[in-house]
Amino acid sequence: MDAARTEHRTGHVVVDGGRVAAVGPGRLAEADRRPDDRVVDGAGCVATPGLVNTHHHLYQWATRGIACDSTLFEWLTTLYPVWAGIDEDITGAAATAGLGWLARTGCTTAMDHHYVFPHDGGDVLGAEIEAARRVGVRFLATRGSMDLGRSRGGLPPDHVVEGLDEILAASAAAVERHHDPSPDSRLRIASPRAHRSR
Q1: In which band, very low, low, confident or very high, does the pLDDT at 100 lie, cut at 50, 70 and 90?
Q2: Element holding 157 (H helix, E strand)
Q3: Where are the domains of the chain?
């Protein structure tokens, strides 16, 4: 489509330096091609802009079949103790599966809100960032958090909640380590306010 969202039953797309430079009807004329241009014949295919997934919890891919018929709070109270045992290996595998499935269905940009950080789970945020790199999607990782554990009336086990100072420090460190603010960035980090988990 062009800026007016014109659909071309037969058309062409010109990509220059990773950006769409032109879209138009029919085949691109020979006179408009450069000698080193690579032409990909997409006859019989549909070309659409990549889809954007705006909210995900990729680590939950690992527990998709558990407590399926539960209410929200039944589901959370069943799964928080399970999620409290995730580590970077589980998170990396779940993120690879989830992002791989998204990519297969046309998603080229994904956002994940990760907020479960078991104290002995390793670098779970880094694991999902590496999964996005391997799968090849543009990624916005949100470094979330929870600060209200079961002992204080919250739902999650205490060993996955963090104090506010710890949350702020970890969020700043994630931005410092991973965030790429460049216009063509394939990785950005966001850090929302603490999640109260109630």
Answers
A1: very high
A2: none
A3: 1-49, 51-190
Mapping DSSP onto H, E and C, the string for the chain reads CCCCCCCCCCEEEEEECCEEEEEEECCCCHHHCCCCCCCCCCCCCCCCCCEEECCCCHHHHHHCCCCCCCCHHHHHHHHHHHHCCCCHHHHHHHHHHHHHHHHHCCEEEEEEEECCCCCCCCCHHHHHHHHHHHHCCEEEEEECCECCCHHHCCCCCHHHCCCHHHHHHHHHHHHHHHCCCCCCCCEEEECCCCECCC
**Long-range contacts of 70-76, Cβ-Cβ distance < 8 Å, separation of 24 or more:** 73/155, 76/155
Looking at CATH, the fold of the domain delimited by 51-190 is given as: TIM Barrel (3.20.20)
Neighbour tally for 123: CB within 10 Å: 16
Global pTM exceeds 0.85: no
